[in-house]
Amino acid sequence: MIHVVDLSLLPAHLLPFSPQTLDAIGSTIAAGGNVLVYHNRRGSASALVCSDCGTTLRCPRCDATLTLHEKPIWRLLCHHCGYTQVDTPSCRACGGVWFERVGIGTQAIETRLAREFPHANIIRLDRDVEEIWGIYPLHSTVFVGTRRLRNAPIGNIDLVVFPVFESELSFAEYDTEERVYLDVRLLSERIARVIIQTRFPRHPVILDLLQGSYRDFFRRTLAVRRAFGYPPYGGYIQIFTTAKSETKVRKTMHRLSSILMTRKHTSTILHHDPDDIRRRAGEFLGSILLKGEHAEEDLHAVESEIWSTAGIRITRW
Ligand SMILES: [Zn+2]
Ligand SMILES: [Zn+2]
Fold first, then answer.
1. Are the CB atoms for 238 and 287 separated by under 8 Å?
2. Order of strands, edge to edge, in the sheet holding 159-162?
3. Separation of 84 CA from ligand 2 center, angstroms?
4. DSSP letter string over 268-312?
5. Residues in CB range of 133: below 8 A, 6 or more apart
């Protein structure tokens, strides 16, 4: 059974859990059952934003946002390269030292649940907690964790809660909706109750989960895939180029995209802007996405360039 809770009507101070969700968690653990709270953001907050000028704190080695962690110690962490900062940050743009938290993570959810249910076992399972499966009490326990929880042998779960369902749908891959839909369906078939908290209760994936059959979802998804040339109607190939030198990445990107732009089917090429280069873990990264029915031919056209250049990687979706 899937229940949807509309968060758009909930006063901000009650977030991240609505009173009915807290009631459901409370009655499940009171009856000796186990709850799984499933959230794909680690840490306490996804980002810190300067209160004075609105600039987000970013990793000095990447362009990625720094995540706030408060357990076991206060630190800012880059999830891409592992860069860690333990001293008080200041804003790169204005020097300000006051920050606001944006986006909730599993540590903040754990803290909130521990406050609501002081006598329950609240166990956070994510990449930050190195513990062995199977040593946990399997009654009256709330597990809080990221996607890696999916395959954890944590026994009988009676209730699954998605506190911020849209964060599951925010990944930019073309098949995100399908993955999320299948996950939730599987959970609702295996587990008695699933609660979806969201600000977008009319999202098509949620409507399909509540009312539709798999056939409806399948039809809608295939129509979208056909319209945009995504698999199975077309290829979806990413060419990544990395190097320590930005100039080298820029040159490689220019070379590849100038060959690709001379081809007839240039409309199939996305993100080919050769100046769109990001920093990742002290290296520079450029990417080109080939999409549609001519993607393989486009790739073939730059094959000899790819083999003769170091640091190029191809991913087929
Ligand atoms: Zn600032
Ligand atoms: Zn980084």
1. yes
2. 2-6, 193-198, 159-162, 35-38, 141-145, 121-125
3. 9
4. GEES--TT-EEEETTEEEEEEEEEETTHHHHHHHTHHHHHTSTTE
5. 152, 153, 154
Task: Record the tokens describing residue 41, joined without a space.
Answer: 């953001």
Per-residue DSSP letter, 66: P
Return the ∠ at Cα 18 (arms to 15 and 24), rounded to 5°. Answer: 135
The Å distance, Cα 220 to ligand 1 centre, comes to 44
User: How many Å lie between the centroid of ligand 2 and the Cα of residue 260?
Assistant: 31
Of 292, 239, 245, 243, nearest in space to 264 by CA: 292
pLDDT in tens, 132-158: 455 566 788 898 887 766 665 556 789
DSSP state string for 130-198: ---TT-S--SSEEEEE-GGGGG-------EEEETTGGGGGG--STTHHHHHHHHHHHHHHHSSEEEEEE
The closest ligand to the CA of 62 turns out to be 2
Q: How far apart are CA 197 and CA 102, in angstroms?
A: 18
* CA 45 – ligand 2 centroid, Å: 16
Q: Which two tokens stand for residue 118?
A: 């002081």
Query: Looking at residue 216, what DSSP letter applies?
Result: H
pLDDT digits (tens, 9 = 90+) for 159-188: 999 999 988 887 767 788 898 898 888 888
Domains (range + CATH), the chain: 2-42+105-224 (3.40.50.300), 235-316 (3.30.70)
